[in-house]
Design a protein that fits this description.
The complex is a heterodimer of chains A (about 400) and B (about 240). With about 400 residues, chain A is α/β, with parallel strands linked by helices. Helix content of chain A is about 45%, strand content about 15%. Chain A contains 13 helices and 13 strands. Chain B starts with about 25 loop residues before the first strand and ends with a helix. Classes of the chains: A alpha/beta (about 400), B alpha/beta (about 240). The interface of A and B includes residues 276 and 299 of A.
Chain lengths: ~400, ~240
């Protein structure tokens, strides 16, 4: 099980004292948070991608992640999310490949479509084409990473003739990809088709919905023959604020919750913590809540936490990370490991992917020979042939 | 590993049961009342329309199941849902009810030449396709009959946008309709309210009864996810 910290780089005024960090401060603090997460024992740090204030998550995450690669030793550097809709897949392939080399393989990424409407037209795209863009762009990105010379023609980008990606992915193995979606079944299907991971950022959503999306992904993962449903790679989001004494956590966090742009002025803190994974309380409460996610989605591979948000001062964020490292992660690791059956895989690392590649076991997009998807495709082809004959 | 839920075929994702297993002949009428008072004349009108439709369904040996969504009880939940993606359980249940209705009776008071903001906010939370092709009977209340075109100028476009089958009859109940105005001019009289209600209810029932019942899910089960096989998505279908 991997645990990680993810950030959207929001610049939010601290409602308790009215101070607002500068962009410069927030960016430098993001680096401190990532370094601190590594020291506290988190395995993953993921940055969002943003193109509009009040966010200073990078417009191209490899800029930040390459810097972090130089500042950290073990931390896996990831995204939450990389905008697959509005970015050129050729540039994504190049930039993340390059990052992978600099970081010695400590890189993976999460694809997302983005939920800020104007970003699409700013980059010359049509938001109504969100799903088709995600489908086509990722298909090209996947080919660029897995094939040497690519000829390409699609709906959304200029064609490519005999294009070779440089640099090639490290050790000939593309970074692992998670596909993030909250509501779109198409994206769960996409993750399953390629044998990639599925990230449900469930921080605002009720559990019935999360269960349904993850089940769909797992079942289709099996359908495409990448493994049993319970072998599929699942990551979840979460958010927490804690103090040793749970009432202290509630009192301290309430003004931040009540005023934050995403949470505030809606349901009360109590309602929100009941309806979503947000946990405000003692470390023990955070442990229990997080363990309950396993009851929703089965054994899963990665748990991300949103910690630096709502205008919390950086020092408090670092304290929270320490509390995770001292009180929460050791217990969660032990509990999750004890519950996990032996055949459920860990989250993929570069080393794992290289070994899998050498064994010739890379997932085949759409299903290898013998998979149910493959059998269905054969059957369809036979039927089409038969009806063609009958017609002729 | 211990049992993941049975994953079955694609139909397993919160898929509907075929219909109400106990009363396959049932039709589910959902009454959405946007009245703000208690008692409320909008609710009164809604109840009477539901009763009229139920009577006619019963007469045709179809079991009417009536669910009332009283928006005033959801006012806070609706306001919170406008600014935040989470939904309260009560609001979620109301939205689920509406999205599985065989027929809808929607009634709003007239405010400033239109329906109430609460009424609009509720429909803003209903997914675009959730009520597609569902027969809808419109009703409205207001102080005087001079507002009666509100049904056609404000409500009808909303329900056309939602792609419902809006019935041509809509029932407007002005204050005077609830009684007989003393000394009223014969020329200002309309068909008595109860007569119009009975006709509109029968109209709704006849449309609802003509269509098969829509599939229903177990209570609390989320709407099914539709799987489009990925090779279709890749082909741009």
């Amino acid at each position: 099980m991997q645990f990680g910290v993810f950030t959207i780089g929001d610049i939010t005024t601290d409602p308790t004292n009215g101070t607002t960090p500068t962009e410069h401060q927030r960016i430098k603090d993001t680096v401190r948070i990532a370094q601190h997460a590594e020291q506290a024992g988190f395995e993953v740090f993921a940055t969002g991608q943003h193109h509009n204030p009040p966010f200073v998550a990078p417009g191209n995450p490899p800029t930040l992640l390459a810097f972090l690669a130089a500042q950290t030793q073990k931390l896996i550097l990831s995204t939450a999310t990389t905008l697959i809709t509005t970015m050129d897949p050729v540039r994504l392939a190049e930039d993340y490949s390059y990052l992978q080399h600099l970081a010695e393989g400590r890189v993976d990424l999460t694809m997302g479509r983005g939920n800020t409407g104007p970003v699409y037209p700013w980059f010359g795209k049509d938001i109504r084409q969100g799903i088709p863009l995600a489908v086509e762009n990722y298909h090209l990105l996947h080919r660029l990473w897995h094939e040497e010379n690519v000829d390409w023609q699609g709906r959304f980008r200029t064609p490519l003739q005999d294009f070779t990606l440089t640099p090639r992915p490290l050790d000939g193995v593309a970074p692992f990809v998670w596909h993030g979606s909250i509501r779109s079944a198409e994206i769960a299907e996409q993750a399953a088709y390629y044998g990639d991971g599925f990230f449900h950022n469930n921080i605002f959503w009720n559990k019935e919905h999360v269960i349904q999306m993850v089940q769909l992904y797992r079942q289709r993962y099996e359908y495409y023959g990448h493994g049993k449903a319970h072998h599929a790679y699942v990551a979840l989001g979460g958010q927490a604020f804690m103090r040793k004494n749970s009432q202290d956590a509630v009192n301290e966090f309430r003004p931040y919750f009540d005023n934050a742009p995403v949470y505030g002025h809606g349901p009360s803190l109590e309602q929100f913590t009941r309806m979503t994974p947000l946990t405000v309380g003692s470390p023990q409460q955070v442990i229990e809540r997080t363990l309950s996610f396993r009851d929703w989605v089965g054994d899963y591979q990665r748990q991300m936490f949103l910690i630096d948000h709502a205008g919390l001062p950086t020092d408090v964020v670092l304290e929270q990370i320490d509390l995770f490292g001292e009180e929460v992660l050791p217990v969660l690791r032990k509990e999750f490991a004890a519950l996990k059956p032996a055949d459920v895989p860990e989250a993929p690392t570069h080393e794992f992917l290289v070994a899998r590649h050498e064994r010739g076991e890379d997932p085949v997009p759409g299903g290898a020979e013998g998979s149910q998807a493959w059998k269905d495709a054969q059957e369809r082809a036979e039927k089409a042939q038969a009806s063609e004959k009958a017609g002729a | 590993m211990e049992e993941l839920p049975d994953l079955g075929g694609p139909e397993a994702f919160g898929a509907p049961e075929s219909t109400d297993p106990f009363t396959p002949q049932a039709r589910h009428l959902v009454v959405v009342s946007g009245g703000l008072g208690d008692p409320s004349s909008s609710r009164q009108l809604a109840d009477r329309l539901a009763a009229a439709a139920s009577d006619r369904l019963s007469a045709e040996e179809i079991v009417p199941e009536v669910h009332v969504v009283e928006l005033r009880l959801l006012a806070t939940d609706i306001a919170e849902a406008m600014v935040n993606p989470s939904r309260s359980e009560a609001l979620q249940a109301a939205l689920e009810e509406v999205s599985q209705a065989d027929g809808i009776i929607a009634v709003s008071p007239t405010f400033k030449a239109s329906y109430s903001g609460l009424f609009k906010s509720f429909w803003d939370l209903v997914e675009d396709d959730a009520v597609r092709d569902v027969p809808v009977l419109l009703g409205a209340t207001g102080g005087t009959p001079r507002h009666s075109l509100m049904i056609d100028t404000a409500m009808r476009p909303l329900f056309s946008y939602l792609r419902t089958k809006v019935l041509s009859s809509g029932i407007f109940a002005a204050s005077d309709d609830w009684g007989e105005v003393e000394g009223g001019q014969a020329s200002t009289r309309t068909t008595p309210l109860q007569t119009r209600i009975a006709a509109a209810g029968a109209d709704l029932a006849s449309v609802v009864g003509r269509f098969p019942a829509r599939p229903r899910r177990a209570s609390g089960a989320p709407a099914p996810l539709e799987v489009i096989p990925f090779d279709q998505l890749l082909r741009g279908e």
